[in-house]
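quick q for whoever's on today - can somebody do inverse folding on this one?? i tried earlier but teh output was garbage lol. tokens:
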């Protein structure tokens, strides 16, 4: 196979990003329509729209000046510059690959968005100006997240160059599953959802509240200008997906040389990685209840909190003995982080139905850890039975039973809280940092055999579960806090002593079952009125 020169691969990176980006957008839109039981657009519809707009005449608003005319092309040129600076197809730096770090790439992306916002102001349209104002206001919350994500990158590799960080992960795969890195990935992914207009607020392509952000600021554009804006939006989304996968999550599968076959394989794998991120986006947009507009700052602040927590955990996480990546270590750490993040979701959510779904998901993740522990030889085959019981009871029976009881009582689905959501998340972050500080000097058993990176996260999950029970004076939420506490304890026990007898785990499940039965008695038979579901009202029924 022929070998491509570096400059040709660099040009090919730009071509691939520009050519494939509308296809990714079309696939996401099509899959969302299928899930929502709509016919939806064709997969190639973004290409047809761009081609149609390129052939149309440009109609300018009367107040529009040169800024309005030039903005779509300047924005598109900025997006086309980014593939020259990030690892798209190769693991080695290309001629311009080291010309900018993460901050440089962020500034270029910010320039593209800023130019379009200025054009909205220049159009003179109040609708476009409203979209521009909202975008700039909400976008300001993303800047601290980018800074702290870059801090984690710099602390890990002593540089914030994208190619250097990818090389660090490939040389030490264990870096991928460190709690600080996983939390940093979560923060960056939430920022990607915000930057691409994928936060579940109304609908991505709607014309209501969220449309006044993304669609509103480009409403006055037409013809080729609108075509480049639509194209640039797809390119921006694909670029962020590429940075997430090729730099932070999975910097493997790229070409290590200029051979044509290796480059072509890298293109195919890049497309598959983008589809994986797109699948996660589809699940989020189709599964979670739509937020109101004023909830966007809470979402962006939560991503910033995760980035701050990642920095603090990096500073206080213990020196691990598992210098090589094992399946058990990876499963334990990833499970512990997912359970902790779901607990943060429980703190954020004020809807009991969403809390039940989050708890069921966390229980399924804990069951998967039990299966992985048995499959890797760190526990006996009885853990398979534990995983099956966990799925049957905690992932299916308990959530469905609690939902049935609350619906039968016609209980209020909104969960009251003692303090605000932001304050609750902040307290949870403080408790998580406390867990890492306290457990930093602790060494248990043979360090090489235990994934000590998961232990502080599991203990943090226990503390956050207690916080959930304290702050929510609502019987279902306190029961869920108790159940989530058992999930965190199970993760900690599987990390510290995966070989414990199965009878101990079953006894813990029996305690949980007793707790659920007590909840049924209190709520089903004592809660005559709807307000009696609150624990402060239940307290009046005593003595």
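ok took a stab at it. sequence:
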């Amino acid at each position: 196979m022929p070998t491509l020169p570096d400059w040709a691969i660099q040009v090919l990176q730009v071509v691939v990003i520009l050519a494939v980006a509308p296809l990714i957008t079309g696939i996401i839109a099509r899959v969302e329509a299928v899930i929502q039981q709509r016919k939806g657009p064709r997969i190639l519809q973004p290409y047809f729209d761009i081609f149609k707009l390129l052939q149309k005449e440009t109609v300018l608003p009367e107040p529009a000046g040169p800024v309005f005319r030039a903005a779509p092309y300047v924005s598109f040129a900025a997006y086309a510059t980014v593939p020259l600076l990030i690892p798209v197809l190769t693991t080695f730096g290309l001629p311009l690959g080291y010309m900018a770090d993460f901050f440089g790439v962020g500034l270029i992306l910010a320039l593209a968005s800023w130019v379009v916002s200025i054009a909205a102001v220049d159009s003179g349209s109040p609708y476009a100006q409203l979209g521009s104002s909202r975008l700039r206001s909400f976008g300001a919350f993303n800047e601290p997240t980018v800074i702290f994500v870059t801090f984690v990158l710099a602390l890990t590799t002593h540089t914030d160059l994208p190619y250097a960080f990818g090389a660090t992960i490939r040389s030490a795969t264990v870096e991928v599953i460190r709690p600080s890195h996983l939390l940093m990935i979560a923060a960056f992914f939430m920022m990607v959802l915000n930057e691409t207009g994928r936060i579940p607020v109304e609908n991505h392509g709607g014309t209501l509240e969220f449309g006044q952000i993304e669609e509103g600021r480009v409403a006055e554009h037409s013809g080729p200008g609108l075509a480049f804006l639509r194209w640039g939006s797809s390119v921006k989304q694909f670029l962020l997906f590429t940075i997430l996968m090729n730099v932070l999550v999975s910097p493997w599968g790229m070409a290590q040389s200029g051979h044509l076959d290796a480059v072509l394989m890298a293109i195919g794998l890049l497309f598959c990685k983008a589809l994986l991120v797109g699948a996660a986006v589809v699940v989020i947009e189709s599964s979670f209840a739509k937020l109101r507009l004023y909830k966007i700052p809470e979402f962006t602040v939560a991503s910033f909190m995760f980035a701050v927590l990642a920095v603090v955990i990096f500073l206080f996480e213990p020196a691990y003995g598992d210098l090589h990546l094992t399946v058990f270590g990876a499963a334990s750490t990833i499970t512990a982080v997912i359970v902790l993040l779901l607990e943060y979701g429980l703190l954020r959510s004020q809807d009991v139905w969403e809390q039940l779904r989050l708890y069921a998901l966390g229980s399924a993740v804990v069951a998967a850890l039990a299966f992985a522990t048995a499959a890797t030889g760190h526990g006996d085959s009885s853990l398979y039975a534990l995983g099956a019981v966990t799925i049957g009871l905690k992932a299916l029976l308990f959530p469905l039973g609690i939902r049935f009881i609350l619906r039968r009582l016609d209980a209020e689905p909104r969960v009251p809280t003692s303090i605000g959501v932001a304050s609750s998340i902040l307290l949870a972050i403080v408790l998580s940092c406390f867990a890492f500080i306290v457990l930093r000097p602790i060494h248990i058993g043979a360090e090489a055999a235990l994934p000590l990176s998961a232990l502080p996260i599991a203990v943090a999950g226990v503390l956050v579960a207690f916080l959930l029970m304290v702050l929510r004076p609502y019987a279902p939420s306190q029961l869920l806090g108790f159940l989530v506490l058992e999930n965190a304890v199970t993760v900690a026990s599987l990390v510290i002593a995966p070989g414990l007898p199965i009878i101990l785990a079953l006894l813990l499940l029996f305690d949980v079952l007793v707790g659920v039965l007590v909840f049924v008695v209190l709520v089903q038979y004592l809660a005559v009125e709807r307000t009696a579901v609150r624990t402060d009202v239940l307290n009046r029924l005593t003595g």
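fwiw The chain has two domains: 6-306, 332-540. also Confidence is low (pLDDT under 50) at residues 202-211, 528-532. so keep that in mind when u check it
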